[in-house]
Write a structure and sequence with these properties.
Chains A, B, C, D: InterPro entries: TMEM175-like. Chains A, B, C, D: Belongs to the TMEM175 family. Chains A, B, C, D: One of its GO terms (cellular component) is membrane. The structure is a homotetramer of 204-residue chains. Chain A contains nine helices and no strands.
Chain lengths: 204, 204, 204, 204
């Protein structure tokens, strides 16, 4: 099975997820700007989730880019990841509507946690199916960022019960960590692709 | 008519279907985790339908993969199948909200049944239009799994009136049956594709 | 501007339109099958609109298939057509919820009418931009079906005020007219494409 | 990173945005045409936003068309632009439901303003990454239309507090300005593409 349809399907689901969150922004019935004020937690949740889904779309793109074939196992690892991603609009709305109270903030962190775990499983399924793909192995590396994120999400979930604001800061910190370009790794991948391509050329 | 736009359109509809189900997960207004508890049948229905739509997407991909041309009849067989698929979010929400009572559980099974029947019709329309495509014939084979599923859905619909829990177990069993990779058949298809491709090469 | 992105964008919008109509099927709160009964006009409207959007998707595909370049005018003619198409879910829901009363049934016919007019404008914009494309001219021909449809929609809109049931029958008849494959024309198009391609080959 | 997936993802998000606005057209419960009358501001807002999103889709297409590679910065500039675009359905519904009162009309203008600013940032990010792409530089030019739009949106936002009708006229005027084909610029771009292509041919 080629990877094109998997990419197209994932892109479709991600595009829908990032967009339907806006449907949870309930239009206030009053024309006063004051009616907008109580919506700030909803907007803030929306922005955070928008950034998270954007980061995942970007990372997913790079991950799938370096492989050619998709096995049945990878396909289901991908669907499993999309499943957890699909819960983001739900927990985003719950957290926003309840102004970052303990329960919803913990639930939000839990879904982020499961997204990260599912993404790690997807990466491992890919490595399992492409044991000789050096570019892929390098691209994933020891996945320090991924492991750190999982640890921070766990901390965030626990923190929610003591201070939801602190938990939120942890979630924001993780997203910032992913936003900062990691040029060293990106360089490695590019280099790896070139190496592989030159290896292919040599083989022909 | 090429198959690319049919694939893209089907993927689009399936991606939307699998995602809008999440809109039926009504956000509880209370921040308590207790408010989540009554939602478990809704979540369980969501997971089951997510898996079903995932299976169909996967199978549809393999089915269309082996043909090149799409006739008007196949196009409408495909739309007919998408129509029944589009009712899944509706019956999922009805079943989830009513905690697996007899009526909604039977309706859920009925829609699954019609999806399976429509899928079988689509497969037959493809065979009818590609009578000489050996790979396609092999891929579909005598379609034991498909026929068994239809029988099980029928049993599930009837069972709903006696025990909705048993009916649900039947639906889950069918999805598990499709999740287990059927390596023998997948092998056959791959082999068939290779045979056909080598036949093409010989012909040129 | 190439036609690929126009096709992809139109497919995306059409896939969403055909799917979000299902969101208007409000889930009944009661688990009784009796709760489904009052929904039959909603379901019937859904089926009719599903078929209509399916027909348009199919026709649009064939129309765009025979051209290569898209001008700014064609792009806006296409968006204008998508605009009227986007109102189908709205009038479908209004007609379904009000059990085919005069006003909503007339509004439904009016939107179908405008879709047909916008589609005819799109076809003319294409011909205007490809005056020498014989295949396109043949494919559109004198567009008897299109003109007949517009006349029938007009009759349907007027009929709605006397008998909504009769108006509905007119709308159904038009959809059936489009469902019946018009092999003579399809043959012409295929032939035309072959002619054009052979002409191109001769020119090179 | 190739531009195909960025184009596909942006198209997906834009197709969803332009379509979900129709979900904000709440179906009236009465079958009387009179029930439609109070909906005219909602319809008018819908049409205006439909045209705006159509213009952006068109412009985005032309902008991305002339580049080949997408850097991480461009990707995030694109997501930032999509973020502001995603708020259009929200402010459209708010403005429509409140019959063009001061607050919502100003908010609508503010979101249009931010879309234009984000689009300008995206264009600059592209130029920054393709300093030698003469076609891109020419295509963007001194971006008089873009700057004028930003100024007009600002005027519109301020005007809203004095006369929402006047502000609305300003927004409509900006959309008309973009709808009128700017043949001189389009000519330049086409010319530029030809120049570049001939330059490439010379280089080979």
């Amino acid at each position: 099975m080629g990877k094109n349809r998997l990419e197209a399907f994932s892109d479709g689901v991600i595009a829908i997820l990032i967009t339907i969150m806006v449907l949870e922004l309930k239009v206030p019935h009053s024309p006063d700007f004051g009616a907008m004020l109580p919506l700030w937690p909803v907007f803030m949740s929306y922005i955070l989730s928008f950034v998270y889904i954007g980061i995942y779309w970007n990372n997913h793109h790079h991950l799938i880019h370096v492989v050619q074939e998709i096995s049945g196992g990878v396909l289901w690892a991908n669907l499993h990841w999309l499943f957890w991603l699909s819960l983001i609009p739900f927990v985003t709305a719950w957290m926003g509507e309840n102004h970052f109270e303990a329960g919803p903030t913990a639930a939000y962190g839990f879904v982020l946690l499961m997204c990260a775990v599912a993404y790690a499983l997807l990466a491992h399924a890919l490595v399992f199916n492409h044991p000789k793909n050096a570019t892929l192995a390098k691209a994933i590396g020891n996945d320090r960022k991924g492991k750190l994120s999982i640890a921070l999400y766990l901390i965030g979930v626990v923190l929610s019960w003591f201070s939801a604001g602190m938990a939120l800061l942890v979630y924001i910190a993780v997203s910032v960590m992913w936003l900062i370009p990691d040029r060293r790794i990106e360089g490695k991948v590019t280099e790896g692709i070139e190496l592989e391509e030159s290896a292919k050329r040599d083989a022909t």
